[in-house]
Design a protein that fits this description.
- This protein has about 190 residues and is mostly helical.
- Helix content is about 50%, strand content about 10%.
- The chain has helices at about 1-20, 50-65, 70-85, 95-115, 120-140; strands at about 145-150, 155-160, 180-185.
Length: about 190
Amino acid sequence: MKTLKTTLIASALVFTAFASTSCKDGNKEKVTNSTQSEIQVKQGKQDAKALAVLNDYFNLKDALVNDDNSKAKTLGNTLAQSLKSFDESNYSDSEKTELKDIIEDATEHAEHISESDIKHQREHFKTLSKDVTDLITITGTNTKIYEQFCPMYDGGTAWLSTKEEVRNPYYGSKMLKCGKVQREIN
């Protein structure tokens, strides 16, 4: 898992170095970068528990996009419960070990989101987004997901979305369209 996180961080840094456009509201240009590593998605392995985690993550992201602290608190708790009920028994031993680490970390961040003000929620959402990305690397997905990236939030930060149109959960209404599609998953 550390190797995967290191690779993702290095990829994000490379992307930031190549990003030539600053975040401006209304900028919908899609950026692709051939040096970005693709997440290897294992088709057919995703189960209902993994889908529940993804759906809860996307609902939480939307609450942050809408600057809705109260809803984000509720959805952080919902996501924490989905993560706790995730069943890794269908995965290989090495995947189980990684999934347990990911789930433990993601659950902690989801729980913090359920107890925090929106600024602190967004800080935890950054790490939570990395954890969910790591999770789908193992579980796979049958849904097209867009990894989006904002170079301005905390030195550069990614998140996942089911829509190509950028809606930034880290800035919400302040800079709603700040970011670019970094890559498509699936």
